[in-house]
Amino acid sequence: MTKTALITGASRGLGLALARSLAADGWRLILTARGADTLRPVADGLGALALPGDVADPVHRDRLAHAVRDHGGLDLLVNNASGLGAVPLPPLAGYPLDVFEDLFRANVLAPLALVQTFLPTLRERRGAVVNISSDAAVEAYEGWGGYGATKAALDQLSNVLAVEEPEVAVWWVDPGEMNTTMLADAVGPDDAAAAPGPETVVPTLRQLIEERPASGRVSHS
Fold first, then answer.
1. What does pTM read for this prediction?
2. Which residue among 21, 96, 142, 213 is the one 20 to 30 A from 122 at the CA level?
3. Position 221 pLDDT exceeds 90
4. How many CA atoms lie within 13 A of 185 on its CB side?
5. How many angstroms separate the CA atoms of 174 and 21, rounded?
6. Which strand (E) or helix (H) includes residue 203?
7. Active-site residue flag, 141
8. Mean pLDDT computed over 102-121
9. What letter would DSSP give residue 194?
10. What is the DSSP letter of 25?
11. Which residues of 39-48 are buried (b: 16+ CB within 10 A; e: fewer)?
12. 3.40.50.720, 3.30.420.40, 3.10.280.10, 3.90.180.10: which CATH number matches 4-219?
């Protein structure tokens, strides 16, 4: 039976790299990201369904739910889409609270909402959830308090979900530094260029998906 994956933030970076790998192995893909102009060519090239939009928007999440139903269910949910927050990275003492609230909506509420939406089909198909985390969730990096707090919250949601849903594999993955647009926005393009490409993380993700180890936090190294 052909397996189906929904990948958020799939137009670039790690989401795109994973989508390419899964497509090469015959997975049916539903891809979403905010930039339609970038997402559609990617999806067309992979034979995937493109549904551009913001996962923080409940109307868009409903569209994703309809698409999954039309595809007969879901085997893998990858919560990769993520916001960075205020840039330049501010100290917590001056962090704009409206930006902080929006960041939690994108990085914590949206992944949980998608999990809630797709748990019935993931339970039925003994599926899996991959939540992309960060070392900023567990380390104290100056300026990264807002982003790190959202990833710490996502880690704990994943941790509890793994206990509550034993039929569903749940992994929260710290990919380490990657040469992505987000990292370039945070530290500058020159420093970001020194980091490994996101494709280097894909073997770690594929190993989880194929071998299905126990749920837990995974650090790519």
1. 0.97
2. 21
3. no
4. 11
5. 19
6. helix 202-211
7. no
8. 98
9. T
10. T
11. bbebbeebeb
12. 3.40.50.720
DSSP summary character for residue 87: S
Rounded-to-10 torsion of CA 200, 203, 53, 59: -150
Three-state DSSP at 117 gives helix
Cis peptide leading into residue 41 (ω within 30°): no
With b for 16 or more beta-carbon neighbours within 10 A and e for fewer, the 6-28 pattern comes to bbbbbbbbbbbbbbbbbbeeebb
Q: Which residue has the tokens 């929260």?
A: 172
State the pLDDT at residue 5: 98
Catalytic residue among 104, 118, 147, 171: 147
What pLDDT does residue 189 have?
92
With a CB cutoff of 8 Å and minimum separation 6, the contacts of 52 are 32, 33, 34, 35, 36, 39, 40
- Position 1 scores a pLDDT of 78
pLDDT in the model for residue 29: 98
Q: CA-CA distance, 138 to 152, in Å (whole number)?
A: 7
Average pLDDT over residues 33-47: 96
